[in-house]
Design a protein that fits this description.
alpha/beta; 7-stranded mixed beta sheet; 4-stranded mixed beta sheet; 40% helix
Length: 461
């Protein structure tokens, strides 16, 4: 454990602004230096199981550096940079061809970006340009879900449904109605079964569309499984219901795959699990397994058509570094590694073991619910067997005070989060085998047992 500030930590405190962090906090600062398989090591050599895949990014873990570095070196020596503005280069072409091959349905066109927020904003601009080209410029609104995170740049922030991420930054750039998320643990009524729950949620989406005026709604954007709020898996029939509703009203359906895409749910796109092909899919993170930063919007034939139909029509959006040859070459090899080393197959094979391990933790009184899909899980923390929610003081004490240090002490990285209810997010690298999963579940058991004692004042933090 890092107990006192080293020069490196002090330098970080002096100069490095940490994102979404309390920069003035006196808590020990974790400084990670290297990785190996599903593990990362801090500057003092302490090993941590990366139970969050570095924010849902490190699909391959950390041992593919040599292979990807050789791809990167070859690309940098051949063509270090070129844009995809009015010209192309082989690395971006090869990657778009590969993406078109592996994506479901007719998602055969790619608009590259630099990351998730840029993908979400680019999707909005593509959606707008589609409607304008089709003579429906009045489609200016969107539907998203409460608590959902779709990024923080000012366009993407409009879709994000976490109130305190938005408060300081003025009115949203895009009018967005946020509908209920799909949390069966908290949101399903006693007299409802899954089908009735699903119907009620879809009725709410329909009501929101009607309230706005169906002819004014441009897109619906949702994650296949919503992260914020704690891995909210939709009820059966939800995504097909969204697809039907969107089609009936001429609205485009966007699946935000920034987390769920590239294997997190055991498929190339998470939404494939729910039997639906969206009109657009926003991706980032896993497209390179974070060996380089990149994002991409997958676009269907229908949405791309107006961009090709009129030779004078200009795609009115562009980002200098999007489709960077270095990132494109790494992404392509990442996808080839997925196939060669059977990464999707590993997620599908290990999912039942991970699910059983995490759900076994429900016997701990502090665990109200363990939910998720694929390698994407959340454990909802509660006060007692009645599943009483933690109050604000308890969340501060346990999620921000106790757990961060205790998790590191146990050699585990996981994410305490209370954008919705109090949760611990778990998302191991997709290469994790049964032994790694057992280690993960064992460490969680230890930490959560202690957290319960601290919560109830039976041990000190
Ligand atoms: C679903 C979703 N959309 C968009 C984003 C924004 O991505 P980025 O942080 O790369 O801008 C995130 C980030 O975690 C995300 O989870």
């Amino acid at each position: 454990m890092l107990l006192s500030d080293s020069p490196l930590q002090q330098s970080a405190r002096d100069h490095l602004l940490l994102h979404f962090s309390r920069n003035g906090s006196a808590n020990p600062l974790l400084v990670l230096e290297r990785g190996e398989g599903p593990y990362v090591f801090d500057v003092e050599g302490n090993r941590y199981l990366d139970g969050l895949s570095s924010l849902f990014c490190a699909q391959l873990g950390y041992s593919y550096g040599e292979e990807l570095a050789s791809v990167a070196a070859a690309q940098l020596q051949q063509l270090a940079f070129s844009t995809v503005w009015g010209a192309a280069h082989p690395a971006a072409i090869a990657l778009s061809e590969k993406l078109a091959e592996i994506m479901p349905g007719d998602l055969d066109h790619v608009f590259f970006t630099g990351g998730g927020s840029e993908s979400v904003e680019a999707a909005w601009k593509l959606v707008r340009q589609y409607h304008v080209a089709n003579g429906e410029p009045q489609r200016t609104k969107a539907i998203a879900r409460d608590r959902a995170y779709h990024g923080v740049t000012l366009g993407a922030l409009s879709f994000t449904g976490v109130p305190n991420y938005k408060e300081q930054f003025g009115p949203p750039a895009i009018p967005v109605t946020h509908v209920s998320n799909t949390n069966p643990f908290r949101g399903m009524r006693d007299d409802e079964d899954e089908a009735a729950f699903c119907r009620r949620l879809l009725d709410e989406v329909e009501a929101a569309v009607q309230a706005e005026g169906p002819e004014t709604v441009a897109m619906i954007i949702m994650e296949p499984v919503q992260n914020a709020g704690g891995c909210l898996v939709p009820p059966d029939g939800y995504w097909p219901g969204l697809r039907e509703l969107a089609d009936r009203h001429g609205i485009l359906l966007v699946s935000d795959e920034v987390i769920c895409g590239f294997g997190r749910l055991g498929e190339w796109l998470g939404v494939e699990r729910f039997g639906v092909v969206p009109d657009l899919a926003t991706t980032a993170k896993g497209i390179t397994s974070a060996y380089a930063p990149m994002g991409a919007v997958m676009v269907s034939d229908k949405v791309a058509a107006p961009l090709y139909d009129d030779p004078k029509r200009m795609l009115m959006h562009g980002i200098t570094f999007a489709g960077h040859p270095l990132c494109a070459a790494i992404a392509l090899r990442n996808l080839e590694v997925f196939e060669r080393d059977e990464i999707l197959e590993n997620v599908r094979a290990q999912e039942p073991h991970l699910a059983a391990g995490l759900q076994s933790l429900e016997q701990l009184p502090i665990v109200g619910d363990a939910r998720g899909a694929g390698f994407f899980w959340a454990i909802e923390l509660v006060k007692d067997d009645e599943n009483t929610r933690l109050d604000a003081d308890e969340r501060e004490r346990i999620l921000r005070g106790y757990l961060p240090g205790r998790l590191l002490e146990a050699g585990l990285i996981a994410r305490p989060d209370d954008r919705g209810d109090a949760c611990l997010h778990i998302a191991p690298p997709l290469i994790s085998d049964a032994a790694v999963i057992d280690e993960l579940v064992g460490k969680l058991g230890e930490v959560l047992t202690d957290a319960h004692d601290v919560l109830h004042g039976r041990a000190s933090a």
